[in-house]
Amino acid sequence: MSDVIAAVILIMIVVAIFGGLVYPLLIRYQLYSSSALSAQQKAEIQAQVLISPIYSYNSSSQTYIYFYNYGKVPFTPSEIIVNGQPVSFTLIDQQNGSRVSELVPGTVTELEINKPYASPFNISAIGNGITLSWTA
Fold it and tell me: How far is CA 3 from CA 11, 12, 33, in A?
């Protein structure tokens, strides 16, 4: 009977040691695989988003940039950054002149920035989990 108890205790010790070694490796693997999946998802989104500036001009108080969405999915900018500084902005659908929150595929959208910028300037749009950048 003592041989059986010794064998059970030995098995429990081996399982505990094995679990202590394998569990951290499992956690590390899950972290790496989730970050790789996140990068793949971002790449898939970026492959479907194709926004291009087609025209820009300045008034005395604002900058206007017209974008065409050649992509397959809408792009919803949460933040616009010009020359490294976040700016307030408005999006205007050029088909009906209404304010919108996203750049719809196959349409021209006007981006109004409440400050004039002399060309060339760098502009970035953050949205849909990605960052798009241009020089206008």
Answer: 12, 14, 44
pLDDT on residue 4? 78
Token couple for 94: 């050029």
Structure tokens at 37: 């999946």
pTM: 0.67
The b/e string for 96-107 (b: 16+ C-beta within 10 A; e otherwise) is eeeebebbbbeb
Q: Closest by alpha carbon to 47, among 22, 72, 66? A: 72
Contact 92, 102 (CB under 8 A): no
Q: pLDDT tens, 119-130? A: 889 999 999 888
